[in-house]
Each structure stands twice: as structure tokens, then as C-alpha cells.
Amino acid sequence: MRDDDQIPLPDFDLDGFTPYRLAVAAKRTSEELARMYRARFGITIPEWRVLVHLAHSGEVSVRDIEARVALEKYEVSRTAKRLEESGLIAKRGNDRDRRLVSLSLTPKGRAMMAELLPLAKAHQVELERRLGETFAQLEAGLERLLSENGASDGD
Amino acid sequence: MRDDDQIPLPDFDLDGFTPYRLAVAAKRTSEELARMYRARFGITIPEWRVLVHLAHSGEVSVRDIEARVALEKYEVSRTAKRLEESGLIAKRGNDRDRRLVSLSLTPKGRAMMAELLPLAKAHQVELERRLGETFAQLEAGLERLLSENGASDGD
DNA sequence: TTGACATCATTGCAACTGCAACGTTTTATC
DNA sequence: GATAAAACGTTGCAGTTGCAATGATGTCAA
């Protein structure tokens, strides 16, 4: 065998691989935001998602949140536990169906969201401004990806 | 105080929040791929990234990889450790600069990549087909996001 | 009513992650 | 050269994650 007797590999450009590009873009975008959440409010992204849903929907169960904020059931459960410990949400049993746990914002959580949501909105506006006309293109692509199997399975 | 005397919250639609949309789209896309990697080759996404870079670049250091595949230094280090343990890559010291560790594919790793890379390419083609004309739009958006601060800081 | 099955939420465990600190080696400054 | 500073890679630790299993409750059919 000669020394260069190696299996030849096809060229592959990771930078042109869409799943990779998406992952990197998402990570950057999320981390930018996560820094703000953490620095100003001391919350993580899963916490932010749950809080947003509660702000929007009032009192809901873990199950209700799961599907709506793209978190697994156990993530919601643990996130809710942390949020309760930091006093931002309240958990209580549901009398109709005692398997359910009702989650809702506490006044403290509500006050925080009253401050946070406008910032998030402003961030979105700023993002759209920064992307300019490519924003609509990005959205078209995301829409296509997200609608592909949005309801097909629980994952 | 009346019972409904609550701080009013602005409406906020998580589903329309671009960072969230990106995160969900990236997660779905990545997981689809991760399933294939894991099922057929038993590797994770960080492992896949390191392997791709080695397939492309031959022999490189941890530092070289770090920037190119969007992983932190310690992630590359631990990923390399695992890949070495599973016999897919080899690690050895660099004589010129003994701080460096040279990573390279083993024949076994090379053989795996020879099988994996065509599948990844096919996946990309399939993705482009599925997205149709929105693919170009998505790419335009991603390009904008990724070029914004790609070299500005190491993060 | 009872028993089998489904649903909801939680948790034990092992693996993984992020951060900061570390040891080693090289580079820069005097 | 000697000392300080920087670069490279690794690792200890505490916290987090994902999976599968669990317990508790509800639903349905006989």
C-alpha cells in the first residue's frame, strides 16, 4: 500500500450546508437576546417562553404550554418549577381535572413582563430594520420550514 | 384594589418573533439530521462538524476547528476526545508548537465520512427541492444574518 | 363497579454543558 | 537570558438536559 492510498472524500462545504447555517444563525440571534434577558431580568430562554405564553394566555396547564412554545413537557415542568421558586409564576392544582397544574403569572411576574415585552417588541422592530428587505425573504423561508410539519407530530 | 386591578400587558405574539422562529426552524432541521447521524453512524452534531472539518482540511489543531465550525474551544476538545475514543480520529502532538494538538481522521473515520458526506449532500439537495423558490429567499436572509458580525468577535 | 388503558406532570439517573481555573508551551519585553 | 504576558488545550465543578420510568388521576367499555 502506498502512503496516499486513502479513500477519496467528496468535497463538502459546511458553510454552505443549510442546517448548519440555520443553527449558527439561530444561535447568534438567540444568544444576543439571551444576554439581555439574563442581564436585565435574570431569566433564561425557556423561562422567557413560558412567561410569554402566560402573559398571553392567562392561566394554563403544562400541557397547554408544551405545544405552543416548542418545549418538551419535562422542560416546561422544570422551567415552571424554577419560575415558581423565583416568585414569577404561581402553580396550583386544577379542581376539574386534578392531573392538571395551573400556571399563572404572579403580580411580580406580571410586572416584569410589563417591562420586558416592550423591549422584546423593540428588538423585533430593530431586527427587521437591520435586515431591511431581506427580512421578508427570511420570513418566507422560515414560514415554509415551519409550516412543513408544524402539526404533524408532537415533536 | 379591585380584583382585576392588574398591570396591563401589551400583546405579544411569540409565533411572530423572529428569534423564536429561527430557533424552532433550526431545531427541527437539526434534529431531522441528527436522527440520521445517530441512527446510521452513531455520532452527534458536534462530532459531525468536527469530522466534516477534518475531511475538508486534513490535519488541524483544536484552535483551527473552533472558529470554523462554530464550537467553543472546550467543545472541540471534548468532542475530539470522544471521537478519538471511538476510533474515528487520531490526536497527536505538534512538533513545531507543542501547545498544539493535531487532529486527523483515522482510516475508519475516513471510511465513515466517505459514506456520510454523499448522504449529507443528498440531504441538502432534497432540502432545496422541498423549499423550492423559497430556498433562495431563506438563504438571502441567512446570509445577511451570518455576515452581520461573522468576524467581529469570536463568539 | 371494576379493570384496563390513556393522560398529565414529575423525577432519577446518566450524560452533557458552560464557565472559570489550570498547566504547559510559546512569544514578547527588557 | 530572564521574566512577564499570551496562547493552547484540558478539566473540575455545578448546573442542566434528555430519556425513560413513575405515580396520580381520569376515561372508557363491559
What's the helix and strand layout?
2 copies of one chain form a homodimer.
Chain A: H1 18-41, H2 45-57, E1 60-61, H3 62-68, H4 73-85, E2 89-93, E3 101-105, H5 107-131, H6 134-148
Chain A binds a DNA duplex (30 and 30 nucleotides) through residues 61-63, 72-78, 80-81, 97-101.
Q: Helix amount of chain A, in percent? A: 55-70%
Count of individual domains of chain A = 1
Could you give the distance between the termini of chain A? Answer: 49 Å
The CATH H-level homologous superfamily of chain A: Winged helix-like DNA-binding domain superfamily/Winged helix DNA-binding domain
How big is the Rg of chain A?
21 Å
Secondary-structure class of chain A: mainly alpha
Name the chain pair with the biggest interface and residue counts per chain.
A-B, 68 and 68 residues
Number of strands of chain A: 3
Number of helices of chain A: 6
Low-confidence stretches of chain A: 151-155
Anisotropy-based shape of chain A: globular
How big a fraction of the residues of chain A is strand? 5-15%
Q: What CATH architecture of chain A would you give? A: Orthogonal Bundle
Largest sheet of chain A: 3 strands, antiparallel
